[in-house]
């Protein structure tokens, strides 16, 4: 199902301000989601693990050295455990987008945007699933992905290894720690004993100074 | 020797190593192979438990012992593997007739062009493991849990070319019968049987229950021993732990069925333990091994798709620059997008296989063919027929081909037989033999049969199975050698009858020099099919010929209930007589571009060409339209989607003009500014760069697109080769900005006159300054504006 939010996110990714989208382009987006659904094979793996904090370091269950990250320490300040998560739309989506770029760039760009929105939705759905199973007094923090704030992209590798994500969902990394298939997400969500602010803040974003969405008074939705 | 037992008697492998280690303290995310160094006694204990349970072959704890993983540790790949085998040797001292399998898993990397590891690099990585394994004393190599057929090929070649050990291969399939990478079961079988491995099969991903339909299918198509190592059911997460959902007894009960299906080698994967193996051995050891006897059928494959020659198969001929000006021009600029577009079009038109030939005077055919095969095979699902008269080009392309190709071609000449057949044998490719030899094309059908016979005999001697041999009896032109056409037809029949091999013909050659060539072509095709032609090499865009194929299939009962014919032609009034086009309203070029209407832009340009010179069309019609679009975009009246649409409209107008200019060799050759575009090393996101490309091409730039993940040296080389003064670099990730900086530093040092424009999601004015670029462009239009104002 394509929610209004998903539609708005796609429109933003393809560079159309909210109020400037006509029916024609919206139809095109809807069609593109249909094409995407034919090739996407969404898969997700997640697991609850223990977490401990030591100064500026976050130590996940089994990690020998821990990870230096002020942002994660802040995120997990009320958490004793967290969920690590890896999700992908599958390699056929990459193939489809690559091929379309050679014959119909507009279609390629729209499907590329739809895929970014869809993979986010896959994680959102899993989050809801997790939330529904929480006990009273348990809350989730926001979802935090490597590359965001001071968490290095390299951290994806730890998440994938811990989840055995290559075997289980076919998700791998390039040598430079870019996820492949490209329409994929790795993330960490704290399991907190207090209600947390789940809204992502622009303060963590590396693009905060130049963001065109912020300038237009919007948010990027990530 | 374990080699003598494979396929002769049932053999038992061990079960999971990882699961056992986790139960003995291995932490999540820890490198299991390090246990060979730190806890050898635990590994030895696990091996012994499996041997005690009845396993005859134990797998070393080396699944991920490749340099990508191991180089992060204090050990070398060789050290880890050597130690692993020492441990296994110690463990099996008291167990007679047991063997050690060097366990080799996937590297966890994706091969180019989708990923960032070249086929050759993957080969080297595996070679290191294979060599270390044989040296340390492994008895057999187990290549397991692969999901990408291409990576599997690199691993098998590394084992075959560098060791003398038997090779067993398994891939992991999902319930839809494909791997995560889209590899089909049929493709795995065709490729691995061709490569000559000792056993093939399925492991991991699912439990025996879910794998059952896939194993059944495998038992119907495999000709070599089968192997099976399922998981202990499906994983179930509970809190912080994972367990699997079936018991050893349930597991073994399901394995009984697989033993009856004739699976030679049984074992377990994730979640299994010695209890599973013991139960399996107990319940299946008395079931005699009766391997299925499947008929051999001719087939070739890509990773995703197998094509069997049990029906007419159309081999698309368009990927061949001979006589095609536009393709030649594209290849001179090494524009692989053009090649891929041609390939995609033939897929749409209904081809089953694509011939690929990159032979052009004064171009390096070896690298061009290799590059084209790589790009095309990653874009389309159809198998390829690799076509070259250059032996080196053939071998290189066949080597890096992802699947089992058809080689075009060998012929009856001694030299050809001696150089080409070994390539087919080595890589397990099918081979197309041309019925000609030192004397040229013989006149009579009988003489051609004789040559065909010689080719078949030589190929069989070489060990190439009969079903992999194809013969082309060679079509001559009716205008020059009219009396010989019927000899060709007769030869097809003779070859089919006497040699029982599949036949191929390049049908359209027959009509050279005659008017209305399609008429002759489609009738020649129908006649040839009646003589037993299996695979015409033809233009799948030729409707008449495709109709001949469809009709033949109806009339010969190949298309059951005429289903496919009805589906294809049920809604078409009169197939070949309908003329496409002409129903579009007359829209002028400018409007078509502004509105982004591709077809209309093309039609309007064609109409204009009747009275206006190409250059004038560009200056007075296309450029003003593009300027207007640019202005609207700047003023935020239109947005990126409309800009791209307009660019594509303009592109179809330019394409018309380009064809006109190249075919007439007119003096109008527009001197365009050349620009190099590349996504920098380490970065694989390239849609932004490609959008810039589309826009720039329509503002009269010749874009040389180096693709993604481009090393700095390759950028420099291209700058020199094409003598280019403007380079556009793109990076999407913060982590790859540094390789943008490196690239610019190299260019500054070697070619200071070159101007560099940078862009991409993470780039800002400050970052552009930091990396030392001349310009930062926030989007495609700005790139055009900057590049247009440079005096180069």
Give the fraction of residues assigned to helices of chain B.
40-55%
Second CATH tier, the architecture of the largest domain in chain B: Alpha-Beta Barrel
Class inferred from helices and paired strands of chain B: alpha/beta
* Strand segment tally of chain B: 25
Percent helix of chain A, as a range, is 40-55%
Number of separate structural domains of chain A: 1
Largest sheet of chain A: 6 strands, antiparallel
Note the gap between the termini of chain B: 70 Å
Average pLDDT figure of chain A = 90
Tally of alpha and pi helices of chain B? 30
Looking at the structure, what is the overall shape of chain A? globular
Tag the structure with descriptive keywords.
heterodimer, A: two-stranded antiparallel ribbon, 8 strands, B: 792 residues, alpha/beta, TIM Barrel, 4 domains, eight-stranded parallel sheet, 46% helix
Characterization of this structure:
The complex is a heterodimer of chains A (222) and B (792). By secondary structure, chain A is an alpha+beta fold. Chain A has one domain: 3-Layer(aba) Sandwich (NADH Oxidase). Chain A is 41% helix and 21% strand. Chain A has helices at 4-13, 23-39, 70-75, 91-103, 105-132, 155-163, 165-169, 212-215; strands at 43-54, 57-60, 67-68, 79-88, 139-144, 172-173, 179-180, 184-192. Chain A has a 6-stranded antiparallel beta sheet with strand order 3-2-1-4-8-5. In chain A, strands 6-7 form a two-stranded antiparallel ribbon. In chain A, strand 2 and strand 3 form a beta hairpin. The mean pLDDT of chain A is 90. Chain B folds into 4 domains: 2-284, Homocysteine-binding-like domain (TIM Barrel, Alpha-Beta Barrel), CATH 3.20.20; 299-577, TIM Barrel (Alpha-Beta Barrel); 589-657, Methyltransferase, Methionine Synthase (B12-binding Domains), Chain A, domain 1; 673-788, Rossmann fold. An 8-stranded parallel beta sheet of chain B has the order 1-10-7-6-5-4-3-2. With 792 residues, chain B is α/β, with parallel strands linked by helices. Helix content of chain B is 46%, strand content 14%. The model of chain B is unreliable at 577-584 (pLDDT under 50). Chain B contains 30 helices and 25 strands. Classes of the chains: A alpha+beta (222), B alpha/beta (792). Chains A and B meet through strand 1, helix 4, helix 5, helix 6 and helix 7 of A and helix 13, helix 25 and helix 26 of B.
